[in-house]
Amino acid sequence: MKEFMLLIRVNAVSYTAEKAKAVNPAWNKVIEKWKADSVFVTSFVFPGESCVLTGPERTVRKEAVVSDDLKVVSAIVLRAADPEAAIELAKACPVLEHGGTVEVREVPPRAVAGRQ
Fold this sequence. Notes:
Layout: E1 2-11, H1 17-36, E2 40-45, E3 51-54, E4 59-62, E5 70-80, H2 83-90, E6 101-107
Antiparallel strand pairs: 1-5, 1-6, 2-5, 3-4
């Protein structure tokens, strides 16, 4: 099994904290299913502010990167046999019903200490 990262993006303006709370039970349900199926590895939710560093001066701005009105709000790591299987798992993400997107990326294998 390989690991895949799901990058969850939502509309930066219309996906409010209230909407996130309303979708939370659906997220809990799908995560519990992934755990029961032994494909869930971990997840990270990014509800707070972010800081963006830019340029050679390393200028810091408190803001999120927004592209096409979407911002990253969480990342989920799942196990799947191949990209197609990971995409099938990603289709269960409730954010898709609310205008969000899910980007699926394979996570490269991590080096084990003492091995090359």
